[in-house]
Structures are given as C-alpha cells and as structure tokens.
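ok posting inputs for the 2-acetamido-2-deoxy-beta-D-glucopyranose job
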Amino acid sequence: MQGLTASCKIVLVMFLLGLGLAGATADSRRRHISSSPDEPCKKMTLYLHDILYNGVNNTANATAAPVTKPTDLSTTHWSNGTFFGMLVVFDDPVTEGTALPVGDEEPAARAQGFYFYDKKESYSGWFSFSLVFNSKACRGTLNLMGADPMDAETRDFSVVGGTGDLFMARGVATIRTDATEGLFYFRLKMDIKLYECYV
Ligand SMILES: *[C@@H]1O[C@H](CO)[C@@H](O)[C@H](O)[C@H]1NC(C)=O
Ligand SMILES: *[C@@H]1O[C@H](CO)[C@@H](O)[C@H](O)[C@H]1NC(C)=O
Ligand SMILES: *[C@@H]1O[C@H](CO)[C@@H](O)[C@H](O)[C@H]1NC(C)=O
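and the output
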C-alpha cells in the first residue's frame, strides 16, 4: 500500500493566513491544475483483474458476469461473434502489483461498474466504473469512462471526477491489456494521471 499511500494523500503544508476564518476543521485543500501533460499533479499505476463467470465452476471466484446476451447481429450472422451488445457488470479487485490478492488480503481498491461490447466486426468495448478506495491510506472514489478498442495497444479512459481523498480529481487513465487467460480472465494495467487535484 505504500505507493498508494503516497499517491492518494498528497498533503501540502498550507499556511493559514490568520483572520480566524480558517479554523481547525476547515478544509484547506486548494485546486491545482497542471500546466502541461508531462506534469500531472498525481500519478498512480493500478491493475484491474476481471474474472468473468464461466457458467461452470468459478462461481466463488468470479468478479464479473454478463447480464445480457450478445445480439444476434454478432452471434448469428458472423461465425466469429464479437459479443456485440453484451453487457457485463463487475466488482473487480484492483491491486498495486500484478498479483491477485491472496486469501483475505485487501485489494488496493475495487473497480465497480460495467462494460459492454459495441462493435460487430471486432472486439471493442465501452467502460464506465468507479475505483472505490476504502483503506486507511485512501478513502474515496475515482470515476472513469471511455471507449476500449481492444486491438489498440493502449487506450485512454477519462477520469471524470473523484470524491473523498480524491475530491474533484480529473485526468486520464491509459489502459493496457497486461494479461489474459482464455476468455474468462483479463488484467488491465491502468496508468492514471490526474491533471486537476485538490491538495
Ligand atoms: C473449470 O472448468 C474448466 C472448463 O470447463 C476447466 O478447464 C477447469 O479445469 C475447471 N476448473 C476446476 C477448478 O475444476
Ligand atoms: C469476423 O469475420 C468478419 C467476416 O469474415 C471479418 O470481417 C472480421 O474482421 C472478423 N472479426 C474478427 C474479430 O476476427
Ligand atoms: C480465480 O481466477 C483466477 C483468474 O482466472 C485464477 O488465476 C485463480 O487461480 C482462480 N482461483 C481459484 C480459487 O479458482
């Protein structure tokens, strides 16, 4: 959790300038906007593990499940169906390293939301989810959304907002497929750079 501890809670030493207006309970965080894409105000790298329900024997392990069937458009008319129209809901563990949490080890965060497949000719998805941080080191959310054309080596999701320790954060998450196991597991590497932070 060390990296995250450092990255989630950036605390600037603020000098309260008298006047008695800023008491001990006042929130002294101020908005910081980066002046260049090379200088995010906060960076973190996290791994999202999606373990899809295989319909057979991974009920306990699965963290994602299709909630709709793909449409006939992709499955009947194409021999190589691309799941067009299928919606998957997930509550995925998110870690700082590549390994899945072992036993009752707490993940750094959970990714809660959905993706759906949105192209009949090739694998392409669209994601919308919250990264939910709920540890002593970091409490709050980052909310991400964006297109996932899976053939591209990297894709960018927008970080559209944040709450808690990540109050009002905005930025870009660059996504890379880091590992796959057949059809039922993938790991995404997320390089998250925030360009607007309250610290
Ligand atoms: C679960 O089922 C899959 C395919 O149906 C099989 O390859 C795998 O070995 C099974 N795993 C367990 C733990 O039984
Ligand atoms: C599926 O098949 C169609 C028609 O043969 C082809 O145009 C398309 O590229 C294929 N898609 C994938 C993901 O292989
Ligand atoms: C859970 O799923 C992951 C990803 O497929 C796999 O590596 C792991 O062995 C599974 N664990 C159990 C207990 O089946």
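notes: The two ends are 20 Å apart (CA to CA). The longest strand covers residues 185-198.
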